[in-house]
Amino acid sequence: LTGMSHMVEVRDGLLRRHEFYPSEADLPLCTLDQLQGAATVAANAAMIERILAGEAGPRTDIVLLNAAAALVVSGVATSFREGVARCAIAIESGAARQTVEKLRAFGRTIG
């Protein structure tokens, strides 16, 4: 999100290199400092909770972009723009938070 990134796509056994710009996913540019995590585990956990609650900003944008990448790789989304939009809906609707809560509950059963 700080500028252009180099990407390599592997498809049908072929490598395709290209440049990716945040604007391709309708995301604004930001600085590296704006993406930096907090100093403690507790503060980072609180940051994640704020993102899941719908807080806007560069940290949310990077979460959206990374989740969108997973959707693109898995074939659920055909583009980063579509993936970001789907992930934003998941956060806005509370579905992302519900999934995290399910993972937490599962973790408590095995740990």
TrEMBL record:
Transmembrane segments: none annotated. The keyword ATP-binding does not apply. GO terms for biological process: L-tryptophan biosynthetic process. Gene3D superfamilies: Nucleoside phosphorylase/phosphoribosyltransferase catalytic domain. GO terms for cellular component: cytosol. One of its GO terms (molecular function) is anthranilate phosphoribosyltransferase activity. The keyword Transferase applies. Residues 2-96 form the Glycosyl transferase family domain. Keywords: Glycosyltransferase, Transferase. This is Anthranilate phosphoribosyltransferase.
